[in-house]
C-alpha cells in the first residue's frame, strides 16, 4: 500500500512538473510570436515555433513514459 501511495504521489509530481515546464516553455514562444508577427517573416517563424513546440512535447512525453515505466518496474521489483 505504501508503495502504491508513493507511486501516485510521483505521477502527480510529474504532472505538476510538466505543467510548469509547459508554462515556462510556451510563454517565451507566445511573446516571441507576438513580437515576430510585426515582421514579414512571421509565417516562417510560426512554422519554426510550431515544429520546436511539437519536438519539445514529444521529448517530454517520451521522458515521462520512460520515467513511469521505470517507476512501475522498480515498484514491482
TrEMBL record:
Lineage: superkingdom: Eukaryota
Keywords: Membrane, Transmembrane, Transmembrane helix
Name by which UniProt lists this protein: Transmembrane protein
Organism, scientific name: Elysia marginata
Residue stretches spanning the membrane: 14-35, 47-76
